[in-house]
Automatic annotation (TrEMBL):
This is Type II toxin-antitoxin system RelB/DinJ family antitoxin. One of its GO terms (molecular function) is sequence-specific DNA binding. GO terms for biological process: regulation of DNA-templated transcription. It comes from Klebsiella michiganensis. It comes from the Bacteria.
């Protein structure tokens, strides 16, 4: 006699047992009946269909741009911080960027048919029927070359037989410029009304508010409900900052904005963990990371030349008491 066994979670088994018991079955007897039915009739007693959720072409188009831009920005950061002239390329870290480029390209390939339907990148072909115009997907001119530029940039330093030379970096630069232009062209299609500079300003404003909320949420001796309210508001405005970040093109502030985004998200995780695991009186949050992120935010603000209110921490404001209202 054949025996079939498989593993499922305890929670799933408990739920299934409750349903089966109401019908007078055990899990074993019910599954045995299904197998015998298949053997006798040569067909399935029931077909379970998994229907994928409908994809919004515009959102998929924007996600493809975002993933491409992320690989570009991260590569720029790698070149600036990790590649040293007359030193060997750190191949283990290089592999991470190669994998990221491949992942972004695979996402584009997998969703190309959907991306081509995004209305914002469609262009009418002149000379056709005016009542039934033919449309052309402009993104096809930019996505494939973009990944080619990124891979070519990697090839200049993907070596293990000699150190990196200044000439390698010099040859790479115009290729990265071409990649940036392709990203900007794609982003310009998706952004129909808001400039990249305006988006960056709005993103920094959202991060400023998120950091202020983080400070309020972690003040000493406030009520749990107050801390929770500030934490939820922080999460909300960070979500808005994330939306704007995904719509940015390329600029001289790419690396700084990417680091600020990463550090702020890490801080938000720490704040959320603190609020969810601390009871009144609310106390004990380590403010070192908060102070570091605030300092870097103010640095980015200064380097970008944006006029906005800088953030001051408690260390800058002696005697400042907690605000117990959100």
């Amino acid at each position: 006699m054949a025996q079939i066994s498989f593993r499922i979670s305890d929670e799933s088994k408990i739920r299934a047992d409750k349903v089966l018991e109401q019908q007078g079955y055990s899990a074993g007897s019910y599954l045995q009946g299904i197998v015998e039915y298949i053997a006798q009739n040569g067909t399935l007693p029931v077909v379970i269909e998994f229907r994928p959720a409908a994809l919004n072409p515009e959102e998929v188009f924007q996600e493809a741009i975002f993933q491409s831009r992320e690989t570009y920005v991260n590569w720029r950061t790698f070149c600036r911080n990790e590649l040293q002239v007359n030193q060997m390329t750190p191949l283990d870290k290089l592999r991470t960027h190669i994998d990221a480029i491949n992942t972004a390209y695979e996402f584009y390939q997998r969703n190309e048919s959907v991306i081509r339907q995004a209305p914002s990148q469609m262009e009418k072909i002149n000379g056709g029927d005016p009542f039934h115009p033919e449309m052309f997907s402009r993104c096809l001119e930019y996505f494939p070359p973009l990944f080619g530029y990124l891979r070519k940039a990697v090839s200049f330093v993907h070596m293990n037989n000699r150190p990196v030379q200044q000439g390698d970096l010099d040859e790479m630069e115009p290729v990265l410029v071409q990649a940036a232009k392709a990203i900007d062209e794609l982003q310009a299609m998706a952004n129909t009304s808001v400039s990249a500079e305006t988006l960056a300003r709005f993103m920094l404003r959202d991060i400023q508010e998120a950091l202020s909320c983080a400070m309020e949420s972690t003040r000493e001796h406030i009520s749990y409900m107050t801390a929770r309210s500030w934490q939820q508001r922080m999460t909300l405005v960070l979500g808005e900052a994330e939306k704007k970040y995904k719509r940015l093109g390329t600029s001289e502030q790419d690396v700084a904005l990417a680091r600020l985004r990463h550090d702020t998200r890490r801080l938000a995780t720490k704040v959320t963990e603190y609020v969810e695991t601390t009871s009144e009186p609310m106390t004990g949050f380590d403010t070192n990371l908060l102070d570091q992120v605030v300092a870097f935010y103010n640095e980015v603000l200064s380097l970008s030349g944006y006029i906005s209110a800088s953030i001051r921490t408690d260390a800058d404001q002696p005697g400042n008491s907690g605000n117990d209202s959100a």
